[in-house]
Amino acid sequence: MKPLTILSALMLCLSAPCMAQIDEQQIRKAAVASFPEYLEFLALPNDALVPGDDMKKNAQWLEPALAKRGFTVRRVDNNGRPILFAALPSDPSKRTVVFYFHFDGQPVNPAQWSQPDPFKPVLKRRAADGKWGIVDTRELMRTDFDPELRVFARAASDDKGPILMFLAALDLMREQGMATAVNVKLILDSEEEINSPGMGAAVRQEADFLRADALVIHDGPAHASGRPTAVFGNRGVQPLVLTVFGPKAPQHSGHYGNYLPNPAMNLARLLAGMKDAQGRVTIPGYYARTRISAEDRKLMARSGDDEAAIRRRIGFAKAEAVGANYQESLQYPSLNIRGMAAGGVGKLGANIVPKEAVAEIDIRTTVEASGPYLAALVRTHIEKQGYVLLDHEPTDDERARHPLMARLLVSAPAEAARQPMDAPIRRWGEGALAQAHKGEPVLLRAMGGTVPTNEIVAPLKLPFALVCVVNADNNQHAYDENLRMGNYLTGMRSMLGLLTSAYPQ
Predict the structure, then answer these.
(1) Model pTM greater than 0.85?
(2) N- to C-terminal Cα distance for the chain?
(3) In contact, 71 and 186? CB cutoff 8 Å
(4) Any idea where the domains of the chain sit in the sequence?
(5) CA 350, 352, 358, 360 torsion-angle sign
(6) Whole-number Å distance between alpha carbons of 391 and 208
(7) Strands, E, within 66-208: which ranges?
(8) In this predicted structure, what is the pLDDT of residue 347?
């Protein structure tokens, strides 16, 4: 399919509402009006792994914020992690689009952050030497604010920023007396960062309320070029915990070094054997199901990735050789070590042979290669290396008989999903973004990260697209997460494009 031209995108603007009615100054004014709410929302702790009432407090903040925009809100308690569903009054002559966001955040270690508290947002400007300096937040209350300013806080980009962009876009349309071109429904997730275990059941429970024609997910970073970005698939995630067992208790490394096998060394060898020096997984069958068409490759080539700039920004010399380029690498399943532990480190270190060594692994799955399929391949590979896999601590008898023992815990996966590139939602999304930004958007086959697309798409049977709006260098899932204020404006513009474009009948 040929990309939509700017002229053909503008043809969509023949009937109201239309992006042509909205200028940059109006967007800036609406953004400024929303910033106090944005900063207030960021001040609510939302660490996904912290028990307690934080998710309830976030939901309680959202409910009146949605109600004052005219939404009817349905709340599913979800074992103390409320999921919110909302809808504006509908017009039966219009198609309906569900917009997805999440309000939980990744875990935080405050000591790593360059500010006292990740839940006390600060505004910063980067100096010529590359260092960030704190700026008074009152600078955001001017319509001529510098778009290079950034708000630093947990969830600034992932994903509270997009929520407030969307509400600001709706506020602007209401101020201008503009009705949306589609009926609007929302899903606001409280547990995306832990793979949304309750989403499937909640969506099935509220299936009638959520009945719609399409799903748009506002999560994940825009293309590094800054161009508007639409993505039509995402990888899933399969978490694994691999434990290699050693002695019944830690032993003195002087007395037993060179004699007692070290489980950390065994774990290191086992993990190293799963990938080659070029970064390709060596487990038989791991990539066997992946198929990328010639048309898909052409689409990925049009993304315009500056891979040298990516390497400079992140700080590495050479990419792994799984795919021919960055976009292609994201179409294959991955195998990532996200954490390791054995004994202690630094002041906690001791001269011991540790009792066990543990690796946390996340596998990014694809539509063709599911979590259970890939986890089974990993299990078979471990067993072929001579390991006996147990589901418990080894007994004395098992320790006497088996030199290599391990445990592999396989959690429930969040599965991948992907939309055909010739689907109507692609034409709608591409046209809406081209109209809004007066330029061709970046279209991607699938992004590498995971969102609960499958948990929503499967029960509701909806076509979907991800419209990613935050800056690519936002540090999501790490310390010093941030949102570039210029992306707040362009994100609002993307959302306005979608809200003012009629979904095809």
Answers:
(1) yes
(2) 19
(3) yes
(4) 6-234+416-499, 236-287+332-410
(5) positive
(6) 42
(7) 72-76, 83-87, 96-102, 122-126, 132-135, 150-152, 183-189
(8) 83
Q: Could you tell me which residues come within 8 angstroms of residue 472 by beta carbon, excluding any fewer than 6 positions away?
A: 221, 222, 223, 224
Q: Which residues pair with 363 in a beta bridge?
A: 238
Alpha-carbon span 225 to 285, nearest angstrom: 35
CA distance 235 to 11: 34
Provide Rg for the chain, Cα atoms.
24
Q: Supply 201's token pair.
A: 């059941």
In the numeric block, which tokens belong to residue 460? 């509701």
Pick the CATH number of 6-234+416-499 from 3.40.630.10, 3.30.1490.20, 3.40.50.2000, 3.40.50.20: 3.40.630.10
Q: What string of H, E and C letters represents the secondary structure of 186-212?
A: EEEECCHHHCCCCHHHHHHHCCCCCCC
- Residue range 236-287+332-410, CATH number: 3.30.70.360
Give the residue among 334, 328, 333, 326 at the shortest CA–CA distance from 292. Answer: 328
10-residue mean pLDDT series, the chain (505 residues): 44 58 95 98 97 97 98 97 98 97 97 97 96 96 97 98 98 96 98 94 97 97 93 95 98 97 98 97 97 88 90 94 94 96 89 97 97 98 98 97 98 92 93 95 92 91 96 96 98 98 93
Q: What is the pLDDT of residue 345?
A: 84
Amino acid at 73: V
Q: What is the token pair recorded at 276?
A: 């080659």
